[in-house]
Amino acid sequence: MERTKLGFAMTGSFCTWAKVVEVMERLAQAYEIYPILSPISCQSNNRFGNAKDWIQRIEGICGRQVWRTIEDVEPIGPKNLLDLLLIAPCTGNTLGKLAGGITDTCVLMAAKANLRNGNPLVLAVSTNDALGASARNIGLLMNAKNIYLTPMAQDAPEKKPSSLVAWFDRIPETLEAALQGRQLQPLLEGPGR
Length: 193
Known about the structure:
By secondary structure, the protein is an alpha/beta fold. It has helices at 17-27, 51-62, 70-73, 76-79, 92-100, 106-116, 135-142, 171-179, and strands at residues 4-10, 31-37, 84-90, 121-127, 147-149, 152-153, 164-166. Helix 7 (135-142) links the parallel strand 4 and strand 5 (147-149). The longest helix is centred in the first third of the chain and has 12 residues, at 51-62. It is globular. Residues 5-156 form the Flavoprotein domain.
């Protein structure tokens, strides 16, 4: 039996990468994963790790090379390469560009190509301005066809009152619901994970 083909795109909310990659490891048992990294994700060496080390780990989990250019992901549309696409973490920058129809990175082109085929796009938000400047974009995307949001909550309301982070441990059930055309309750009370 053929496994579901999952595009797993990661953007630059590096403080969440350790949790997101743990989810990727679990998903690799059930899905055929195609990893996609935004340009900054392929080159940023920061306090959360070196790009080279992250790429090596991700490619080991997925058993294939990371797609990192627009040219790498463009065939997703015409060849219908994926059954669904996840962007985790999904930054405020990525949310804004998705809402505005901008496709200037491989992650955004993958999203456009996947939606072209009517396949689900799942977003796992991680941004400090979700209840500020990004709120409008989240609202637009919540109402867009074939776009689903992983449940999210404030992660540090006292220190970062506008910040929301997805409950990354709920990505697997969000993916399953999206494949059935269902949205889980996107906004939850309590601290995000």
